[in-house]
Amino acid sequence: MDLITAIAASLSATLKRPVRIETSQSVSGGSINSALSLETTAGRFFIKINKAHLADMFAAEADGLEALKSTDAMKVPRVIALGTHAGFSWLAMEFMDLGGPAHPARFGEALARLHLQRGDTFGWQRNNTIGSTPQCNTPHADWVEFWRHCRLGPQLEFAHRDGAPRALIAAGERLYEALPAFFTDYRPEPSLLHGDLWSGNWGFERTGEPVLFDPAVYYGDRETDIAMTGLFGSPGREFYAAYDAAWPLDPGYQVRTTLYNLYHILNHHHLFGGGYATQAQRMLAVLLAELEA
Ligand code: ADP
To answer: Which end of the chain has a smaller Cβ tally under 10 Å, C or N?
Structure first.
């Protein structure tokens, strides 16, 4: 049985009706997986495919999508099924008709609604991935300790193993030690986060309804999601105004933006190398200068 036939059989079992494939088209735009749009007798599905050993990455993605969807804060594709077959793993979800007109203000309001969902601790019930990098989500009562042990620390470890410049590692270690200084007057709460909110991971349906996909969910400081919206592209001024009107940000956010986005730049260094080391060093210099200001 080929992969598409196996996926159709699994969809039939889950949906309890015969599912026949009418057309299958590849979808571009993903950075980690290949993707297909499957037109079937039971409707259209979006299928992500990767190697079988990455099945747990899709299990974590399904878990995150379900967590986001269960809040009803924003539209999120419904997970239909997932599995492995013949050396591949796959995740099938509702197909979203993206490419609609942008409504940044609706997106801002909806994201604030999502962030109002609170956890008891920082972290998540399972580990997941950021890009394809493993990301630890061990629950912590203290945000600084969480950021140290589950975010900055592991990326500094990767940078060290990847042979990043010594100056980068040294600056990273100084930041690691000084982390509490960024939180003297600010106590973040554990908000439900998308966790990987760059511009490739949200869209708008034809109706203008904002949609979230491809999450790396955990409970953490909502500023981390807001920071990442501006890292590779931006949803625009109306988005930030609407978010801030719904739930104002703390003034110290501007400084912590660099702190939080450093994690993603270090992760890009780990995944892609190249000029990201220079960018990380610039960000570290800004952050360390902030401590002396
Ligand atoms: P990757 O994990 O490889 O980065 P994504 O989940 O970001 O892949 O999906 C790749 C692209 O496919 C997205 O940028 C988006 O345009 C589109 N996409 C994602 N989810 C859906 C969906 N449920 N329905 C339709 N298109 C989707």
So the answer is: C
**pLDDT tens per residue across span 26-78:** 998 777 889 999 999 999 999 999 999 999 999 999 999 999 999 999 999 99
Q: How far is the CA of 84 from the centre of ligand 1 (A)?
A: 19
The share of the chain scoring above pLDDT 70, in percent, equals 100
**Rounded CA gap, 101 and 120, in Å?**
37
Domain that includes residue 134, residue range: 104-292
- Counting ligand 1 atoms within 8 A of each CB, the residue from 32, 130, 213 with the most, and so the one to mutate, is 213
Nearest CA to ligand 1 atom 5: 30
From 120, 142, 162, 196, the catalytic residue: 196
Strand-pair category, 202-204 with 191-193: unpaired
- Helix then strand count (H, E) for the chain reads 10, 11
In terms of pTM, does the model score above 0.90? yes
* DSSP-based three-state secondary structure for 91: strand
How far is 65 from 50, CA to CA, in rounded Å?
18
Residue 99 lies in a domain: no
pLDDT digits (tens, 9 = 90+) for 118-143: 999 999 999 999 999 999 999 999 99
Our answer to whether residue 185 is catalytic in this structure is no
Any idea what the CATH number is for the domain that residue 133 is in?
3.90.1200.10
